[in-house]
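Inverse folding, one chain.
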């Protein structure tokens, strides 16, 4: 069975890894990686290197993004991605192509495949994020897909509503958490030395722009910076940088300003990679920001989360998460509340055992449907 894997960012590649490692060693499959989006941009850490280091037999590389991040540039990048993939789908055929999540460039690659009858399998469909236009892209991808692997039963129900059928929809849990019970972080001393982290408590921080209320991003970024500057009195900060979303450069500039003003207490990371990021999560005092990893993964590491703004609004949360609006005082107060807590002992609603094995099982049975 010939499988294509669409990956457009550091985030989706890290989620895919448990599945990719199993497919790679299963002779039933012939797998090709299709890397595009921010993977090819030096500005975003050139994460293509990480894929190449994992030594897949075949990696296709497609440059699809322009450097600016205003609304016109994002729309132009969408169109460029569609054009590039019109050529790609003309020349490459697969039994099944995996797509993941909700990025605009992922949507463009999938939309280009519709006239070619590409059989898409979508991971993380049915979810809701009202503060991001990714919500629209995610549903577009679901409508174009033939197989669906969701994280919760409620999200499976949402996909059923979208496509008007319950056919080929499977609840498997979050793929990124596959075999998480056996995860061993990098030894603390080694990890801290790798990234020049002081041996002090830190918050793990990730902020992306809100792509629905784009006109407020300058205000939101200023509130973020004010809050983080105050939290630096209690914690160091490890900040993973914003991705290639509309007006992400506004947040990036404020973060770089914060670093310049507090160089010994702020560490900026363009691309951690999955094991390093999970290790950072293990050692962090608290997670702060508006990224899906705080919602989906942090509970499995016993971490409390301050989720800021509307980017993740509508996404189901475990009991480790507290919500805050983009107001510096509220962010600060909520962080201080969370760092008073000990390790979170509750359930992660996104965790199910054997996600990758379940996906492979349904893949092998796909022709039967």
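Residues assigned per position:
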């Amino acid at each position: 069975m010939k499988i294509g894997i669409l990956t457009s960012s550091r985030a989706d590649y890290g989620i895919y890894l448990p599945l990719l490692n199993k497919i790679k060693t299963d002779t039933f499959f012939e797998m090709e990686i299709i890397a595009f989006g921010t993977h090819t941009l030096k500005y975003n850490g050139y994460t293509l290197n990480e894929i190449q280091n994992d030594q897949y037999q075949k990696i296709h590389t497609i440059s699809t993004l322009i450097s600016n991040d205003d609304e016109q540039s994002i729309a132009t990048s969408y169109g460029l991605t569609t054009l590039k993939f019109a050529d790609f789908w003309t020349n490459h055929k697969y039994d099944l192509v995996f797509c993941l999540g909700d990025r605009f460039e992922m949507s463009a690659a999938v939309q280009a495949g519709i006239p070619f009858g590409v059989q898409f399998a979508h991971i993380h469909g049915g979810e809701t994020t009202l503060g991001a236009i990714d919500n629209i892209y995610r549903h577009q991808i679901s409508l174009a897909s033939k197989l669906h692997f969701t994280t919760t039963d409620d999200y499976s129900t949402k996909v059923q509503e979208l496509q008007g059928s319950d056919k080929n929809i499977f609840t498997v849990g979050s793929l990124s958490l596959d075999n998480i019970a056996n995860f061993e972080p990098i030894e603390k001393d080694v990890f801290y030395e790798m990234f020049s982290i002081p041996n002090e408590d830190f918050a793990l921080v990730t902020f992306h722009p809100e792509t629905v209320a784009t006109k407020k991003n300058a205000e939101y970024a200023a509130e973020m910076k004010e809050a983080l500057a105050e939290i630096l009195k209690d914690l160091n900060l490890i900040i993973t940088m914003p991705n290639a979303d509309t007006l992400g450069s506004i947040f990036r500039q404020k973060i770089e300003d914060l670093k310049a003003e507090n160089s010994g207490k702020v560490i900026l990371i363009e691309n951690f990679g999955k094991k390093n990021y999970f290790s950072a999560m293990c050692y962090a005092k608290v997670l702060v920001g508006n990224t899906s990893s705080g919602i989906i993964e942090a509970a499995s590491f016993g971490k409390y989360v301050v989720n800021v703004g509307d980017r993740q609004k509508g996404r189901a949360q475990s009991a480790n998460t507290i919500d805050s609006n983009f107001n510096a005082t509220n962010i600060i107060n909520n962080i201080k509340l969370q760092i008073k807590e000990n390790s979170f002992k509750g359930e992660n609603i996104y965790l199910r055992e054997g996600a990758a094995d379940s996906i492979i099982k349904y893949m092998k049975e796909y022709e039967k449907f």
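The first strand starts at residue 2 and ends at 7. The chain has two domains: 2-177+354-368, 182-339.
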